[in-house]
Design a protein that fits this description.
Blueprint lengths: L1 H18 L2 H19 L6 E10 L2 E11 L2 E9 L2 E4 L6 E6 L2 E6 L1 H16 L6 E8 L2 E3 L7 E2 L1 H9 L8 H14 L5 H17 L11 E5 L9 E5 L8 E3 L2
């Protein structure tokens, strides 16, 4: 009996730790967007494509959700963060604050812009046909004014439905869906691993030096707190220098 209880507790601990990892948090965020889209948008009007990995000049880019409709192409990026979020449309990086600890992460609008440019090239249609949408999951609060396309989950559907001007015909919608499906990489474990390696290389190729003291930034993992399991870049001069930078 005690042995069974021990193994049950171990299994429970492993399950809890898995839910704290960035990968699982990302899956949960994407699942919420999938559910909202499936049950709150008309399937005949809004065509949902999920986890689309497309080729780029330097490797690949992965898009969480693409919704194609007569109202345009919605390119949806999900983010899972806790704490306070500071940023504006033009900044290259935004700031997350948790218990006075600050960390930087890439402006998601800039990240999603790359997705749109990739689709624009694939589909050969102008940028004005696209709508960028960033959905923030987690227990986060925006502490600076945000553009209307930066939303919480409950605001996500309202933003989609706020676009009411017809800019695509039914035939164009169907052709766009077919072109994306034909142009994407096959949805396999190998595709995911290859893209993950590409992202890791981009991170390693960047100038990873601490802007405060000039020492090398190294990959670390948060061990405690609400972001336990998340990886980030930390100054190798720690604890003398406590600079950190989020990885996206």
């Amino acid at each position: 009996m005690f042995n069974n209880l021990f193994f049950l507790l171990i299994a429970l601990a492993i399950l809890i730790s898995l839910f704290k990892t960035p990968f699982v948090k990302g899956l949960i965020g994407e699942l919420i967007v999938n559910i909202l889209t499936t049950f709150m948008l008309d399937k005949n009007t809004y065509k949902l494509l999920k986890n689309i990995t497309l080729p780029t000049a330097d490797g690949s880019t992965q898009i969480d959700h693409i919704i194609v409709s007569k109202y345009g192409i919605f390119v949806v990026e999900t983010k899972n963060y806790n704490g306070w979020i500071y940023g504006d449309e033009k900044q290259k990086t935004w700031t997350q604050v948790i218990y006075k600890k600050k960390s930087k992460f890439q402006n998601p609008l800039h990240q999603n812009y790359k997705h749109i440019k990739t689709l624009e090239q694939l589909l050969n249609i102008p940028e004005e046909n696209f709508h960028s949408v960033i959905v923030f999951m987690g227990e986060c609060t925006f502490k600076t004014p945000m553009p209307k396309n930066i939303v919480y989950p409950l605001e996500y559907i309202n933003f989609i439905k706020s676009k009411t001007v017809h800019i695509l015909t039914e035939n164009e919608v169907n052709n766009i869906v077919s072109t994306i499906e034909e142009g994407r990489f096959e949805k396999t474990i190998k595709t995911h691993i290859t893209h993950a390696q590409h992202v890791k290389k981009i991170v390693s190729d960047k100038d990873n030096h601490c802007p405060k003291c000039g020492q090398q930034l190294i990959l670390r993992t948060t061990k405690k707190g609400p972001n336990a399991g998340n990886q980030f870049l930390g100054c190798s001069g720690f604890p003398s220098c406590k600079y950190t930078k989020s990885i996206d």
